[in-house]
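DM from R.C. (forwarded with permission)

"hey, sorry to bug you on a friday — could you get me a structure for this? deadline for the figure draft is monday and I only need the backbone to look sensible"
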Amino acid sequence: MSQKPMSQKIVTRFAPSPTGYLHIGGARTALFNWLYARGHGGTFLLRIEDTDRARSTPEATAAILKGLDWLGLDYDGEVVSQFERAPRHAEVAREMLARGMAYKCFSTQEEIEAFREAARAEGKSTLFQSPWRDADPGTHPDGAYVIRLKAPREGVTVIEDKVQGKVTFRNDTLDDMVCLRSDGTPTYMLAVVVDDHDMGVTHVIRGDDHLTNAARQVQVYTAMGWDVPAFAHIPLIHGPDGKKLSKRHGAVGLEQYQAMGYPAAGMRNYLARLGWSHGDDEFFTDAQAKDWFELEGIGRAPSRLDFKKLENICGQHIAQIPDADLMPQIHAYLEAAGEASLSPHQSDALLAALPLAKTGAKTFGQLLEKARFALISRPVAMDEKAEKALDSVSRGILGELTQRLQNASWTREDLEAVAAELAQAQGIGLGKIAAPIRAALAGRTATPSVFDMMELLGRDEVLARLEDQAA
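My reply, with the result:
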């Protein structure tokens, strides 16, 4: 991978709120931050924005960490808790106050609502303009107050966004936001800026639903005299119908995708391609993604989740992943899906069957279904289609085949030759022979090649399974 020239050390961050599962949109945001940092030899940090104490849970934090681990997105250093940094946030609010860049506001909620009602009645802007903004400190009453940012009232705030382009906000549409509440706790809007500054974040890559927040946050950077990071606000992910992704479209939580059997490498590939492009490339490795990923390649339009494309990409990755590397992923999939684990004997059998089972499998579930013939034990349980394939005529053919196989050399070529000779003797096509063999060996009608299965299972097991079903 070529190293990209950079004048500064790149630092990105992923900052989820632990109020629920890790949404697939959040997973893509984390991936973009990870790719950009890793591709530029930078640092990728993780911050848990747990200031909402009523909704933040340790279980949700654990789910986020587990999801990132499954997706293969390693972060640098320790996880930062935003809540634990509250004293630092409050310190910055008071520093802005001391600098004259913020002020104490004693207005009550009732007074603020009365202001807005009057403004609505007069057809004016309901943006609250505090009477305490320029008040003489000598007139300050005793009692509770909030600290508000003294935002500019005139001119514009400009965001030079790496994805959205130049975005301009009129300052008269932005209020003097509260930085510190009357109980001394900092607001989310202040905490984000302080944390990003203190963590040395150079590039804020996040969903475009935060674009308006950026305008207000830039004002905090300016008030503190801090360098403003580069912003890249990425469009949201929509469902196949073009509407905002929700549960009605199917899985939206990242852990659901693991339980559905998608390999992490395929998910990384698909999510990277969801809203970002590098020419016409659809399938690529992590190394290529890190080398190619640039913010300029992110489109402005929302991207649509396409499960068929996801499955296609995942199938290509399953085919490419070395067999030994697939095994721990399959074990993890079974655990995530709540399925029974494999015994040591089954694990050995699966590893041997992977070259056959990988072909055409787009999920681990499909792979295990293809490998079922190697995992089951006698007597072989039949599904409905396999039962139909084993009529009296077919069972008679199996009986004769068993006799002919007794002295076969047990190579794929020899096995196929024996079956072809029997088909010719019976005056039927080879397919008529293969169907009952398939059913007898796997209990299914869709399997890998019957001769590959026979070769892998070995003489004794194949003859035993055929004899179980022969007339």
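R.C.: lifesaver. The chain has a mean pLDDT of 94.
me: no worries. The radius of gyration is 31 Å.
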